[in-house]
Amino acid sequence: MFYHLFTAFIDSVGPFNVFRYPSFRMPAAALTGLVLTLWLFPWFIEELRRLQHGVSNVREDTPEQHQKKRGTPTMGGVFILIAVTVATLLWAQLTNIYVWMVLAVFLGFGAIGFIDDYRKVAKRDSKGMPGRQKLLLQVIILVLLSCLFYAGHVGWFPGVEVPFSSRLSIPFIAVNVFNPDIGWLYIPFAFIVVMGTSHAANLTDGLDGLAIGPSIVSATTFMILAYVAGLVLTFKWQGQWVDFNVAQYLNIPYIEGTGELAVFCAAVVGAGIGFLWYNTFPASVFMGDVGSLALGGALGAMAVLTKNELLSAIIHGVFLAEVLSVIVQVASFKLTGKRVFAMAPVHHHFELKGWAEPKIIVRFWIVSVMLALVSLVSLKLR
Question: pLDDT band at 157, cuts 50/70/90?
């Protein structure tokens, strides 16, 4: 909103020119999300506590020490959705199709998580919505968005250009060297990336602050990737104005307009840090599926929209490890009758091995930061 409001007066008020640049609106969006959460979350937590009447939101299939957290209100992710959406609408360019696509995934998956959390509270059932129902609703949302995206791509919306590519960018390999086109297989592949990331984030949300930490790191990483993917610098060289395409220089896919996605990511970072203030051990509020499914879905959508689908396996390495631990555990038990881990997801394994909860959380954060740095290094090593 501010972009459209203030850029209309650039000719008469020169300083308003700063609103044209994502580099200004990114920190502004982060600060907005942070201030909103720090300011209003205490009131929101009290409202959740009053509405939920101390209902237990702790799953029965978790280590015994988790039962001490009974009565902690859940669904704190609702306010993350509010803060991120408000910050994005205030600071992003609202004519950008990518912004609306990622917001639609974010809010749509958040709505699924809200239904799941509501069932847990209203029916006093810690299991919530069946997994198949979640998957079906997510598929419906992604199919609808894919149809809209395709409609924009073929020109059904006048004045809106939506580029589409079924090519994959391979980490550490320049796009002009190897950039495979997988054709129609890209659609189910993209669905798997978005839905897989969403459920992986949901599985990771088992300790205080465990999911939000890697989410903040991933959002920061995608903020940088989205910014450089759509960045064209204009400067004067030997008396002439020259356009310098940063993406082409780095040998990564250039996607015009993705710089606005960096504003959304910045809003996630700000709101995530504010939420972490109240979610850090011992948590005053739980994120709930409404937050984890939304954040995971949005981060998966960022991977697809910025053409970093394969690189996201590194960026989301902590999420991936949690999913793989569950897959390995189930497969091993069904095939051999033996368990590989003391309990899955893997963060519960470390709990049962005697690690203190804060130690597990902080070490997972450190791993997430390391993986993010590896991902950013890939920009230059191509």
Answer: low
Q: How far apart are CA 222 and CA 205, in angstroms?
A: 20
Report if residue 5 sits inside a domain.
Answer: no
Q: Give the closest residue to 327 by CA, choosing from 159, 152, 199, 221.
A: 199
Which residues on neighbouring strands pair with residue 219, listed in sequence order?
none
237 φ/ψ angles, rounded to the nearest 5 degrees: -135, 115
| Residue 15 domain flag | no
Question: Whose structure tokens read 């809106």?
Answer: 160
Assigned domain for 142 exists: yes
- Token representation of residue 128: 């919530």
Domain hosting 41: range is: 24-377
CA angle at 83 for the pair 219 and 305, rounded to the nearest 5°: 35
In whole numbers, what is the pLDDT of the chain averaged over residues? 89
The 10 Å Cβ neighbour count of residue 282 is 12
210 pLDDT band (50/70/90 cuts)? very high
Give tens-digit pLDDT for 244-302. 889 888 989 999 889 999 999 999 999 999 999 999 998 999 999 999 999 999 999 99
Mapping DSSP to helix (H, G, I), strand (E, B) and coil, where does residue 283 land?
Answer: coil
What CA–CA distances, in Å, run from 181 to 43, 98, 170?
Answer: 50, 22, 11
Q: Residue 242: what are its φ and ψ, rounded to 5°?
A: -125, 135
The count of domains in the chain is: 1
Of 44, 22, 20, 66, nearest in space to 271 by CA: 44
Q: Residue 7: what pLDDT?
A: 77
Q: How far apart are CA 298 and CA 318, in angstroms?
A: 16
User: Nearest-CA neighbor of 200 among 313, 65, 355, 58?
Assistant: 313
Dump pLDDT digits (tens) for 137-148: 999 999 999 888
How many other C-beta atoms lie within 10 A of the C-beta of residue 176?
A: 9
Token reading at 169: 């960018």
Asked if residue 333 is part of any domain, the answer here is: yes
The better pLDDT of the pair 130, 91 is held by 91
Looking at the DSSP bridge assignments, the partners of residue 232 are 245
